[in-house]
Amino acid sequence: MKENYQKLMEAEIQKIRILNKKPRLLLHACCAPCSSAVLEVLRDYFEITIFFYNPNICPKEEFICRLQELKRLLNEMNLENIDIISPRYNGDEFEDIARGLENVQEGGQRCLKCYRLRLEKTAQYAQAHKYDYFTTTLTVSPYKNAEWLNCIGLELENTYLTKYLCSDFKKKDGYKRSCELSKRYGLYRQNYCGCIYSEKAAKEGMEGKPIEKR
């Protein structure tokens, strides 16, 4: 039977509410649109730090644009108390894991390795800086494999001894809400995930409707 990660998250949040103390959460974020609805869900229960680690985004100018838009979102949502950690951009880190998978279809093994790359860096940082939890905004997108993301997160929890917050943020109209908030705040919405391969697929119409594929 397929796991319901949304219910697992809700159960974990209920435990936190009973404790009446906000734990520290390191939230991997891919962009402002995806972060918007996720921050609405989590901000009342966690002390959040955003971890903007996305070496898959290409070119560097696109990376900078998405980071700046994320900063603007925090201001628009009156969440200036949330810090953003953004490691130095290094696209080679993504190209190294994508080598040999250049021709694999979007949503396949190249994406799986990209998920792991970004989540593992998040888990490493969370452990090193003593966060209570880590998770990612990626599950808000209907174009991303929530099963893969949660399985990777739970595996990394055991490796790095930091609790992974299971999620399926697109549930309960989470993705729809992200679209609504994007419109409200006039957020820049990309039509490809970030890497050159997803951009090519979007241009060729291989990913379906070209809207927010994270």
Describe the biggest sheet? 5 strands, parallel
Number of helices: 8
Record field, number of beta strands: 5
Give, in spatial order, the strands making up the sheet with the most strands: 3-2-1-4-5
Instruction: Indicate the percent of residues in helices.
Output: 40-55%
Oligomer: single chain
For the record, what CATH class applies? Alpha Beta
Q: Any idea what the shape is?
A: globular
Mean pLDDT: 93
What is the end-to-end distance? 25 Å
> What class, by secondary structure content?
alpha/beta
CATH topology: Rossmann fold
Measured on Cα atoms, how large is the radius of gyration? 16 Å
Would you identify the regions where 5 or more consecutive residues have pLDDT less than 50? 206-214
- CATH level-two architecture: 3-Layer(aba) Sandwich
Order of helices and strands: HEHEHEHHEHEHH
Total separate domains:
1
Describe this structure in words.
- The chain is an alpha/beta fold and 214 residues long.
- It has one domain: Rossmann fold, CATH 3.40.50.
- It is built from eight helices and five strands, in the order αβαβαβααβαβαα.
- It has helices spanning 5-19, 32-42, 60-76, 92-98, 109-128, 146-160, 174-185, 196-203, and strands at residues 24-28, 47-51, 83-85, 133-136, 163-164.
- Helix 2 packs across helix 7 (174-185).
- The radius of gyration is 16 Å and the shape is globular.
- Residues 206-214 have low confidence and may be disordered.
